[in-house]
Amino acid sequence: MKQITLTPKKFSSIALEFDELIPDEIYGWSKEDFERYEVPVGNTRFPLTDYYEIEVEGEAESPEEVKLTIDGDAGRVKYIGCKMGAGEIIVNGDADLQAGAEMTGGSLTINGNAESYAGREMKGGEITIKGNVREYAGTSYIGEWRGMSGGKITIYGNAGKQLADAMSGGEIHVHGNCDILAGIHMTKGFIQIDGDVTRWPGGQMKNGAIVVNGRLERLLEGFELDGIVNDPVVEGREFTGKYIKYIGDIGVNGKGSLLLNAEKNRHHL
Amino acid sequence: MEYILKNGIVYDPVNEINGEKKDVMFRDGKIVNSVSDSAKILDVTDKLVMPAGVDVHCHLAGPKLCVGRLYRPEDERKGVKPKTDITRAETGFSIPSCPATGYRFSRMGYGTVVEAAVPPLEAKHTHEEIIAIPNIDIPPLTLFGNNWFVMQFAKEGNIEDLAAFVSAWLKITKGYGVKIVNPCGSEAWGWGGNVHGIDDPAPYWDVTAREVIRALAQANEMLGLPHSIHVHPNDLGHPGNFPTTINTIDCMKDIKKNSEYRNQTIHLTHAQFHCYEGTSWRDVTSGAQPVADYINKNDHVTMDLGAVTLDETTTMTADGPMEYDLYELTGLKWANKDIELETASGLVPFIYSGRNPVHSLQWAIGLELALMVENPWQVALTTDSPNAGPFIRYPRVISWLMSNKRRMEMMDNKEVHGWAAKKSALATLDREYDFYDIATITRAAPSKIYGFEDRGNLSVGSLADIAVYDLEPNNFDPTVNAAAVENAFSNALYTIKDGEILVKDGEVVKVVSSNHVHTEVQGFEDQEKRILEQIMPMFNKYYTVKFENYIVHDHYAEPSTVYKVNASK
Ligand SMILES: [Zn+2]
Ligand SMILES: [Zn+2]
Predict the structure, then answer these.
(1) DSSP 3-state of A137
(2) What is the CA(B318)–ligand 1 centre distance, in A?
(3) Fewer beta carbons below 10 Å: N end or C end of chain A?
């Protein structure tokens, strides 16, 4: 097991980019390798040691044996864990744009908030965010119609707009509230939102399922009432209580399921 | 500066040089037959030498590209290459950034690339993009096939006024020649419709594709333009469309050519998309044979392939209704653009896959056409880039044409669906192109088709546009080395343009401005003036731009190469 700890010593208002510092790349690196490494900053590179104290303990034979901890705020560090395939990354603070984007395996834990595009085009692995995420978590690349296809994102705080745009697999669990258009264009996969939702979950969804345990303000016109269901099983997961089930988005001949906690969403009936 | 390219194996079909070991000399941008002792020697002993490539049909500059880049950021992120001391950063795969477009053609050894579809209203923008694309000469073709004035003249059978209009509009747009796309069909799209076959009239104008094509061809020959009319026929991409294709070429049979250099009076573009037999995508089969048979019997037609390369790409054409059909078929995002009084275009991303039966059949048809048309001088290699595949795949198409083994392997290994072998004759065709044939369909024939006497050949006095590839034709068998063929044609050892070395060892070593290549008819000025006066009321009534702002002024088209055409000849 190799434990790498980066402790911030200088803040850069121009974002650092960490997509090269993933277990897949760094499992064989010694302390000296890290000290020699220059990290992308804006349109140039500077020594990583300008920004971090670096500690390396133990050895790793493969990426699976790496645990990288950023021990502090990384609110201006982009692409943390981007494209990682194995191992573990922990951020003891906030993370900037694109955390865990295109991840295929391993785990990324952010103990603060994450900026937009966390888990973009994720294919596998696990992302846990203790705070809030901004827009486009678990979404596709801009313009792309093929989005997140696997893995799991858990958000303990609130999620911003267009969560999981074009999702085609995997799952997202938001413990807090969620802004507009969660699961827009989704074709498969599962989204659970425990808090309240502003409006329009599932816009143009073709398939997959969205469960809202809180109150939904506005439902899209493309969702047709399917009925009231008791203790539903959705994508293999059991829920207790009554849910209002809709099918949509009929605007695109969608067969997706949208389930709303019945008690909190009586106003839609 | 003087150079001598020493000891290469030269393929120059215009001069019937077929793999001879010889030197090529050039001075001040032109090929010469002798140089002084101080000439710089480029030793290319035993390497493959050809004139620089000439592409007859590509979509590389203008509004469609711009819309494509805007609405396909997911394409832009592919092919990212950081800047170097010489080149700017590159982005994009099927719709690369402007600098990337120039570098990539240059790396493949190309010197001239025709932009195939310029709506006059957007000509300014096309020339702006040409300014941003380095290293290749670009002749833009101006779109005429759905133009209101053209339809009016064609309806009246008024060829002289139409010729004056074409002459004036080529000057206004700084265009090289006459492009026709789905004649009357793109106009019908303004009414939500399309036309089918060449005798289905456009709404309101009550004029048919046959009338428009014939009238424009007659005007083209009256002016004696260096290129013939360049036609994307009706019914593109529709099963059962091959009779429309033959009717389109055949309706030209009696029109007399007025050009010494080229043979044809009609160029059929992206023929692959126009050679389908059947009634639906379920019963579709190849219609390449009857079209190839027709071409083999008639020398008034030339064609380019529009070969499918089996990539994820972007379709873009001034065939608006076809793009809507494609959008319905794929369900992917669609962009539609109306060009007032002139045309209608559309864009849809497209994923050609070897697992898909129809795409595999299309792949086979593109190659069938190249192998069935006997005379390579009637063939030009294209992918209708990016419609059937991005232009960086030309070397791959070359490798397929040169190797029957590779084609059979693809069919046997299931790299393509069984329809390729079952519904086309590709598996029965064992013809293989040699380097002379390849030089013909990528250099000599394209330049002849366009009436370029000064390029596509290594004649004394021609432009020193030369490509050298890292293959030794005398020690190399292209029929069993498809990957090596593709690699060599993708990365020229040298690309020389106007006597300057732009690429060395597959890397761009110098960046120069591209020339805007256009024609200028002389001797028709009075007719042009009269016709402009005559149509100005209609222009002012219907266009949302002022005529003064419509014209492409000189500074949009610099540097330029102007081919003067004497209309009185
Ligand atoms: Zn076309
Ligand atoms: Zn085209």
Answers:
(1) coil
(2) 7
(3) C
